[in-house]
Design brief:
Elements (H helix, E strand, L loop, with lengths): L4 E3 L5 E3 L2 E3 L5 H14 L3 E3 L7 H11 L7 E6 L6 H15 L4 E6 L9 H13 L3 E7 L3 H11 L5 E5 L7 H9 L3 E5 L12 H10 L3 H11 L2 E3 L6 H8 L8 H8 L21
Parallel strand pairs: 3-4, 4-5, 5-6, 6-7, 7-8, 8-9, 9-10
Antiparallel strand pairs: 1-2
Helix pairs in contact: 1-2, 1-9, 3-4, 4-5, 7-8
The protein binds NADP nicotinamide-adenine-dinucleotide phosphate (NAP).
The site of NADP nicotinamide-adenine-dinucleotide phosphate has 27 residues, from helix 9.
Length: 279
């Protein structure tokens, strides 16, 4: 299956859908990532804090598909925001995955109370110059965090990966990213499999387009200009989640899904200004 690409502000290309790997682990996890690769996934999203970097690297090797065909993303944990720690963490992650560069490296959370994300960003700019990373980006960054990086270094993140699903639609943050020419990726794009998949508006659209509720939600993301990275350990779901490019929702249908937004819609109430990442 051919997956369209999205151009980043640094000239690199990001596949329009990827595989999340949070909670995919161990020997069984290798098989699950491998089945996704065999189905056509090339964007693989992991993180040092997921304990899945090693198995994602192993699945890439076992696939026999050339490294250059993949788009591998991982993320910097909060405990490594100091300059030297960031460089060390990038190199340690590369060794763990058995790779010699990342396509995309993200600061996992800004942790503004610690105030070190700018230091981490400066180290990532150096790592990019060293050839360890192709594109650099952030996750869970608010407009003021983005502006601090841009003003202090002149380098705009290529991607901001944030929580987005039908109960937390993020209209404002999506516009803020667009305004800065930053591509938005959606984490927990299916609301971690929550009740949104059973909402009447989603079910009605699924019946209309002969698609599953998950496919309707993933298409809703893509038509809003967002790259979703759904996690699935099921072969059937993995396949289904890739098969979203052959239909369109109307503008009013997109709005009807946006209307599911709730002011308290975050899955675990993780406010980027407050959240202290596990470390
Ligand atoms: N940057 C960050 O701070 C951050 C935070 C959280 C997550 N992430 C990333 O985002 C990825 C995705 O988020 P997530 O894992 O939290 O949640 P998610 O992708 O929204 O949802 C995963 C859940 O949806 C189910 N599912 C997948 N496809 C389905 C389908 N077609 N029909 C019905 N159910 C389906 C999965 O079950 P099965 O496995 O049984 O299919 C799983 O229970 C993560 O894996 C991780 O890579 C990043």
């Amino acid at each position: 299956m051919s997956i369209p690409n999205v151009e980043l502000n640094d000239g690199h290309f990001l596949p329009a859908i990827g595989l999340g790997t949070y909670q995919i682990r161990g020997g069984q996890g290798i098989d699950q990532v491998l089945s996704a690769i065999q189905d056509g996934y090339r964007l693989l999203d992991t993180s040092t804090n997921y304990n899945s970097e090693g198995i994602v690297g192993e699945a890439i090797r076992r696939s026999g598909i050339p490294r250059a065909n993949f788009f591998v993303t991982t993320k910097l944990p909060g405990r490594y925001h100091h300059f030297d720690d960031t460089l060390m963490s990038i190199q340690e992650s590369l060794c763990r995955m058995g790779l010699n560069y990342f396509d995309l490296y993200l600061i996992h959370w800004p942790l503004p109370k610690r105030g070190l994300y700018l230091e981490a960003w400066k180290a990532m700019i150096i790592a990019q110059k060293m050839g360890l990373i192709r594109s650099i980006g952030v996750s869970n960054f608010e407009p003021e965090h983005l502006d601090r990086l841009i003003t202090e270094t002149g380098v705009t993140p290529a991607v901001n990966q944030i929580e987005i699903h039908p109960y937390w639609v993020q209209e404002k943050m999506l516009l803020e990213n667009k305004k800065r020419n930053i591509v938005t990726e959606a984490w927990s794009p299916l609301g971690r499999g929550n009740q949104s998949l059973k909402e009447k508006v989603i079910i009605d659209l699924a019946n209309k387009y002969k698609k599953s509720p998950a496919q309707i939600i993933l298409r809703w993301h893509q038509l809003r200009g967002i790259v979703p990275i759904p996690k699935s350990s099921s072969l059937v779901h993995q396949r289904q989640n890739l098969d979203t490019f052959d239909f369109k929702l109307t503008t009013s249908e997109i709005k009807s899904i946006n209307a599911l937004n709730k002011p308290t819609g975050r899955i675990n109430n993780q406010d980027p200004n407050e959240y202290e990442e596990f470390d």
